[in-house]
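**Paired protein data**
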Amino acid sequence: MKVHERMKELRKERKETQVQVAEAIGITDRQYQRFEAGKQKPGFDNFWALADHFGVTMDYLAGRTEER
């Protein structure tokens, strides 16, 4: 699974909007939309913030493991 697919899956599990996730990690909603659409990859700081927000490891978010 690709990062942007995993992000969308995790966001939907939590029943959050893209705007809510963006606000939670301190980025614009447009920037988050680009991440989730696969048009832009999150930098390290945003990637880390997303993993923390979703309560998963960075490896899980990256699709490298199925262990959260």
